[in-house]
Design goal:
By secondary structure, this protein is an alpha/beta fold. It has helices at about 5-20, 25-40, 55-65, 85-95, 115, 140-150, 195-200, 225-230, 255-270, 285, 330-340, 355-365, 375-380, 405-410, 415-420, 420-430, 465-480, 490-520, 520-540, and strands at about 1-5, 45-50, 70-75, 100, 125-130, 155-160, 180-185, 205, 215-220, 245-250, 275-280, 295-300, 300-305, 325-330, 345-350, 370-375, 395-400, 435-440, 445, 450-455.
């Protein structure tokens, strides 16, 4: 796994490295050399610099380019420098590197002001404007420079992070769009979360010898998966790999088809036996879609839909018959029978938010002793339950919210969560004892202590049913990796959850390769699961 450091952790680690005897100027040159050795340079090169240490990296980089005989020009926005940056700026002056000061006509009267930001004549433009500590909105003058970089037509390299992108959250209102971002020291969360994938085509990290001072987040890599998946023995049977149960389904929320996605994903991900539990009246809707799974009919109840509900037609007001929704009914004996030999239960997919579903969730929380995954409507129901007042029985509880569902769970507004997704997810996991899988362009998985990030996934997964595929993979992976093994810790559950998120994202990427981001469906992701697992288990992915 690769370390990912918060901005504060990176700042503290940098300071500690300097305090231990490595000069800041030395670290700056290590960063410059790392960038120099990484980028496929095409001259002429423009290095656009702000005023802090990020600009200092640019000055040091200019020296590397000049020494290699690569034509480069430094474009300075400000006549302000950090101490180490000034050291390398002066060396550039002494070496005769061409320098343009945008707001100083005397430096280059032909290229100052707006003329200086005409970057179309450069083949490569290096972004050294703002560092990882940037937060908030970009000022108008910097926004104009960023627009000039983005519209230059050049190959764009951002040093450490794209200027204007928040290093902790990956959020931005205006930032450089890079062909390559070269992270320095360690990756930051902003290289992966939220908008990051849309503004950097490729990213790479260069190690400059800074050791983390605080606990690092972990980026899950493909090599981390092989040992977890393991090798199946000939001397084994379906029970070896776990009985799982999927509880969901209602007419209103098309739960039957969602369960089909989930069941097939679970079978393709290695589950031994999958029990699909849904209202008996809906069995015929799903039976033909999940031939390898066992269907467990639950008691159902009919409910007349009100006129303001989705699925209700205004034209029905003219008819005597009103639309009817089939919901699950709570029967404790049925739930006990269903879960008696089941290692892992996934609850909530398309089940609705009626009283029967709520009572089943309460039963699972207080009586079921296996692993419980709560998704979709189950999360809405869970948001109405005070977990502190419950004597929770499941061996582990795993929650899989997207940002809106997480807002309901935490009571926090979406913008607040976006400003600190890792911190809020970690605090919620610590407070509830659950493992939280927060969905997004990159996935955050935390147990309140460990934090894993998976960078797999693609735009084509923004389609109905994708969340159900993830839950299907997750319930299978948790069942055969964790099961009822008392030697497995909460950290193991957390990592297994991250493994499932990785498999899901990798399968989505494989599906998008075949069908494109517009045309792919969740079913295409399911079809790609075997290919991904085969590669991962062989260590070839």
């Amino acid at each position: 796994m690769i370390d990912v450091l918060s901005v504060d952790n990176m700042r503290n680690s940098d300071a500690a490295t300097i305090a231990a005897g490595t000069a800041g100027a030395e670290l700056m040159m290590r960063a410059a050399r790392g960038v120099f050795e990484t980028v496929p340079w095409t001259a002429p090169v423009a290095i656009v610099c702000g005023s802090g240490n990020n600009a200092g990296d640019g000055y040091a980089l200019a020296l590397c380019l000049d020494e290699a005989g690569i034509d480069c020009t430094i474009i300075c926005l400000y006549d302000r420098y950090s101490a180490d940056g000034k050291y390398y700026y002066d060396k550039c002056v002494d070496s005769g590197v061409k320098i343009i000061h945008l707001h100083n006509p005397e430096s280059d009267p032909e290229n100052c002001g707006d003329k200086g930001t005409d970057l179309g004549k450069y083949a490569t433009v290096v972004d050294c404007l703002l560092g990882t500590g940037f937060k908030g909105d970009v000022r108008a003058d910097l926004a104009d420079v960023i627009e000039s970089i983005n519209s230059s037509g050049a190959y764009i390299v951002s040093v450490d992070i794209n200027s204007g992108l928040n290093g902790d959250t990956g959020m931005t209102s205006c930032c450089v769009h890079s062909d390559l971002t070269v992270s320095v020291g360690s990756y930051k969360p902003g290289h992966f979360l939220n908008m990051a994938k849309d503004v950097m085509k490729e990213k790479v990290n260069v190690d400059i010898g800074i050791k983390p001072q605080d606990r690092a987040y972990k980026l899950v890599e493909e090599n981390d998966i092989k040992d977890v998946l393991g090798t199946r023995r000939n001397y084994s049977n379906k029970g070896t790999y776990g009985y799982i149960a999927l509880i969901g389904g209602s007419t209103r929320y098309s739960g039957a088809i969602r369960l089909a996605y989930l069941a097939n994903a679970a079978m393709r991900s290695g589950a031994g036996v999958v029990k699909v539990a849904l209202p008996g009246e809906l069995v015929h809707d799903v039976a033909s879609h999940i031939l390898e799974s066992t269907i467990f009919p639950l008691s159902g109840k009919s409910r007349v839909m009100s006129t303001n509900e989705p699925g209700h037609s205004d034209g029905a007001k003219l008819c005597e018959a009103q639309p009817v929704d089939i919901e699950v009914a709570y029967n404790p004996e049925e739930i006990d029978e269903l879960t008696s030999n089941v290692k892992t239960v996934a609850f909530g997919m398309g089940i609705g938010t009626g009283s029967g579903a709520s009572e089943i969730l309460g039963h699972l929380l207080t009586k079921y002793t296996g692993n419980l995954i709560v998704d979709a409507d189950g999360l809405t129901l869970l948001s109405k339950i005070d977990l502190d007042s419950q004597k929770l029985k499941p061996r582990s509880i795993i929650l899989t919210p997207h940002i809106k569902e997480f807002s309901r769970l935490t009571g926090k507004q979406i913008p607040e969560i976006l400003e600190d997704p890792i911190g809020i997810a970690r605090d919620y996991a610590a407070g509830t004892g659950a493992v939280v899988l927060l969905k997004g362009p990159s996935t955050i998985v935390t147990d309140g202590n460990e934090v894993y990030i998976t960078d797999k996934g693609c735009p084509g997964m923004a389609t109905a049913g994708s969340g159900d595929v993830l839950s299907g993979i997750l319930v299978a992976v948790i069942s055969y990796i964790i099961g009822n093994d008392d030697t497995k810790t909460k950290k193991d559950v957390c990592f297994a959850t991250a493994v499932a998120a990785y498999i899901n994202g990798a399968a989505g990427e494989a599906a998008q390769t075949g069908f494109g981001s517009i045309s792919m469906t969740a079913g295409d992701t399911v079809s790609a699961i075997p290919e991904v697992i085969q590669r991962l288990s062989a260590g070839k992915c």
